[in-house]
Amino acid sequence: MRPLPIFTLTLAMLLWSSSFIALKHVLGVWDFGQVLFMRMSVAALCWLCCYRYLGNFRYQPGDWRWLALMGVLEPCLYFLLEVNALRYTSAGQAGMVCALLPLVVALVAFLLIGERVSRRQLLGFAVAIFGIALLGVGSGADEFAPNALLGNSLEMAAMFCAATYSVVFKKLCSRYSVLTLTALQAFVGTLFFAPFAFSEPWPADWAWQDMAVIVFLGACVTLGAYLLYNWSVTQVKVTLAAAYVNLIPVFTLLLAYLLLGETLNALQWVACGAVLLGIALGQLPARRKGAQAVTAEG
């Protein structure tokens, strides 16, 4: 694997990890719809400033279904689920749930396009799900996670959206520019979250530090991280790119501890171990002899 995709994937994971910390902060200032609307608006404005690099969009007949599905999955449903997950669970726990993405991608690829999924991957998925449930049950209500089980469940639903999006994006990027598709997501997100933003009164006082976090979320995470990841998907297999999501819980737990002061109890560390064990089981290479796999035919 070439060094550049490794670097871009790692940087994208670091930016995504930091978004959990940033979102946790701004959700204490604005309503979730206002946060998402401002975040997507910043990304859309950035794209307007560099519209010359987007290239010509040549629509292919019949692709409206795939383009619509891409936009609905991300940013609409994904961000809606994730930002509400962070209202109920801690940034560290949300980052741990996010590490399930590689296994969920394999499962979704099996369901949608018939890619082979091994029994070991299914076992790993089951173990990881057990760990996620234990992580939520083992968390008492506190200022960081008032209802961790609900929050982690919403984050899990967001992972299914992200996994399906990865498969759909891989299909579309063979016919459209990565820049064009990523920009389209920003404009769709701005329109989608506008009604949520203006359904609640806005706070009277805005601190520049809070606005700086919004700009970071829109320009560096929504624009930068997605662009880095989407470009990487065109260079490597989608399942390999998704495997780098394993870096997110490491980055997130470290940042949450350093910046938010979040900690985990003993049972939650055991739960984290179960999640990581499930992920490791799901990504071990299958045996060449005697390996059994579940196929689309059953």
UniProtKB/TrEMBL annotation:
Listed transmembrane segments: 36-54, 66-86, 92-113, 122-141, 147-169, 176-199, 211-229, 241-260, 266-284
Places the protein is found: Cell membrane
Coiled-coil boundaries: none
One Pfam entry name: EamA
Highest taxon, organism lineage: Bacteria
Presence of keyword Cell membrane: yes
GO CC annotations, alphabetized: plasma membrane
Major subcellular site: membrane
Domain EamA positions: 6-135, 151-281
Keyword Ribosomal protein: no
Protein name, UniProt field: EamA domain-containing protein
Topological category with respect to the lipid bilayer: Multi-pass membrane protein
SUPFAM superfamilies registered for this protein in UniProt: Multidrug resistance efflux transporter EmrE
Keywords of the record: Cell membrane, Membrane, Transmembrane, Transmembrane helix
Source organism: Aeromonas dhakensis
